[in-house]
Each structure stands twice: as C-alpha cells, then as structure tokens.
Amino acid sequence: MSATYLMPTYLRQPISFTRGSGSWLYTRDETPYLDALTGIAVCGLGHCHPQVTDAIQQQAATLVHTSNLFGIDWQERAGEALCNAAQMDSVFFANSGAEANEAALKLARLYAHQQGFKRPKVIVMEQSFHGRTLLSLSATANPKAREGFYTLDDDFIRVPFGDIAAIEQAAHDYEDICAVFVEPIQGEGGLNTASNGFSYLEQIQAVCNTHNWLFMLDEVQTGNGRTGKYFAYQHSSARPDVLTTAKGLGNGFPVGACMVRGRANGLFGAGSHGSTYGGTPLASRVVHSVYDVLANSDIMKNAVTEGQFIRDGMVDAFGEYGVSSRGAGMMIGIALPEDMDCSNLVDRARDEQKLIINVTGAHVIRLLPPLNMSRDESSQVVERLVNLLKPSF
Ligand SMILES: Cc1ncc(COP(=O)(O)O)c(C=O)c1O
C-alpha cells in the first residue's frame, strides 16, 4: 500500500487490516490481532456488529441523504433516543467530535451574547483535548497539536484538571466567563481522572450555577457506554447544560452530537448553525441502532466487570513494581513507572503479542477495548500485556 498521495498527518504503523469482527482485526493473510483500542474508543460494540451492519446495509439501500431542508424520520428517532439516554432536551447532529464541540463552543458564545458580553471566555483544562477545528483546537491544551495555528487563546482560560479552587479563582479574576468545558475523564491527555472522581463534575456544576455559566461536558470519548454508564457524568449527580459526543455514537460511522438542556435549549435557531451531512438518514439510523444495542443489553455492565478484570489483572501482576491502574469501565489506563522506557511498547505489543494498544502521556498504557469483550478475550489482553511487560521488571 502506497501512502504517497496522503498528507503525512499521521505517523502510521507498518500494518493495515482488511477485516474486523468483534474484538479482532485481521490482516490480508488472516492473521488475527486482538484489538484493545477499537480505533481510539470508536467501535465500542466491536467491529462490524451485526445489528449495526444490518442498519447500514438496509438504509444504504433505501435512502442515504436528502438534506436538513426536509424532515428526516430517522434523525427524529435517533434524537429522541439519544436525548432520553442523556437526559437532555434537544440535539444537533454533526459529523465528528470536533464539530460537536464547535457547536458547543458556539452555543456558549450565543449564551454570552444574550447577556451582552463582547468577547466571552470559556474555562478549559490543562491536558485537555477537544479536537482540531480552530476553536476546538484553541480549547485543546496539547502544544504539539496547537503549534503554528494561531489559536484563539484570548477566548479561553486554562486551569489544572481536577482543581476546583482554580475555577473559583478564575471566577474571582475575570468578569467575562460564560462557561466551563471539561472532559469527565481526560482521554488524549493521559487518561486522567480527578482525585475526587466524578464528584468533581458536581463541584463544577455548583460553581457554574452560582455564576450563571454554562456547564459543558465533552463526552466525545467517554460517552456511549465507554465508562459503564451511557454517559460518564451519570456516575455523579451532576447534569450538564451542554453535552457533546461522537466516537462510539456510530460505532465507526462518522457522526457527532451536541445536546442541550434547560437554559442552553433554544439558543440555536433556524440558520444559526448547520451541516450539510449532519444527521443524514444513514447516519441517524446507525446512531439509533447503536442506541438500541446499548439500551437493550448488558453491554455497559460488561464494560464495568471486564474493565475491572483487566485493571486488577495488571495490578496483580505488577503492582509490587509500582504499576497502578485508572479510568472507568472500558476506558483503562495502566500507569507504568515513570523511569520506564515505553517508546517501543506499541510496536512490540503489535508484533510480538498481536495486541493493539496505545501509550499516552509517555508512560500510561491506554486500553479502549470493545465494551462487549468476552472474559476469554479480556484474559488474553492481560496475558499478552503481562508477556509484553515481564522482561522490563
Ligand atoms: C475528548 C475528545 N474530544 C474531541 C475529540 C475530537 O473528535 P474527532 O476526532 O471526532 O473530531 C476527541 C478525539 O480524540 C476527544 O477524545
């Protein structure tokens, strides 16, 4: 396969897959690889889930696209299902996580505009990742992703993740804040959880309510069952005003969603936002089929038990050497000792163990397996990781 005509925006691994089924990816010669990454938290139901494949096939043969100039029955149905699952009032369908976040950040501006702000600011976190459109990139912390793009830094205030006092301090220091935008667990930034877990979200919501700011959650990665609840915020009693998601929403079909509730509902009117492809009959039917599988199965429960099994297995094997685990459900971080050289772990896992993983934040193995992984498969994840790491201890 030649990559000559592709812009080199990705450091690609020297392998490609031609087929996927459940937790497994296959090369052209049918070598199976155990997929503990699912396209970075995308194929939560596993590769080519039969119900989702069926929905794609049927809708592709019926009607792919009309336009948002017309009613779209499947968009109505997907919207109702998703808003009920998320406890939100209404939804805008986009095509990616960055676009869903762009919608959220535009909503924050509209909200501020209604209150007479000229150049409102949104509080975001250190180590955050929100996407690569210009505004979502400006909200993102990663210096490598931002370099050279003249990000809109005046529009954001950055505080340490998990530090509620820093948000309170910002409220004291600035007059023109309109929202807080945060990931419940930081995915790209190192699988970081707040020290007080999901109660951090309740604390943020309380500050937002005090100051009349929007409380906005980026659940692009944590949503759609990934952490064992439909949305990660449901581990707490907090409720966002704005909620974005993508990734697992289409199980590999490109789609994103920005949902609103209460004071954020009704900010967008006709013409104030849009997308040619947002919520096509095909995309919407896929969203509905993923919802149907998640809502009518034990898959989220499975994500909790198998996620814990993998975490426990790794800590049992290497806890005495300082290895610890973090995350929730099937969003798993295995933190290795900081002085350990992890630079070739991804390649060795793939080539020696036929296991697909990711390493983030320099020394954290990031696992995002299918939510419906079987016990045999999660045992294999642990076994292959133990084989991989054993020589290092
Ligand atoms: C939390 C979060 N927000 C936004 C994005 C961007 O999503 P997309 O790549 O679909 O634009 C990502 C992608 O990794 C993400 O993890």
Question: Would you spell out the secondary-structure blueprint of this structure?
Answer:
Blueprint: E1 19-21, E2 24-26, E3 32-35, H1 38-41, H2 50-60, H3 73-86, E4 90-94, H4 97-114, E5 121-125, H5 134-139, H6 143-146, E6 156-159, H7 164-173, E7 177-182, H8 199-211, E8 214-218, E9 242-245, E10 256-260, H9 281-295, H10 299-318, E11 324-328, E12 331-335, H11 345-353, E13 355-356, E14 358-360, E15 364-367, H12 375-389
Parallel strand pairs: 3-13, 5-6, 5-7, 7-8, 8-9
Antiparallel strand pairs: 1-2, 2-3, 4-10, 9-10, 11-12, 12-15, 14-15
Helix pairs in contact: 2-9, 3-9, 7-8, 10-12, 11-12
The chain binds pyridoxal-5'-phosphate.
Outline of the structure:
By secondary structure, the protein is of the alpha/beta class. It contains twelve helices and 15 strands.
Which short descriptors sum up this protein?
2 domains, 15 strands, 393 residues, cytoplasm, 7-stranded mixed sheet, binds pyridoxal-5'-phosphate, 16% strand, Aspartate Aminotransferase, domain 1, Aspartate Aminotransferase, domain 2
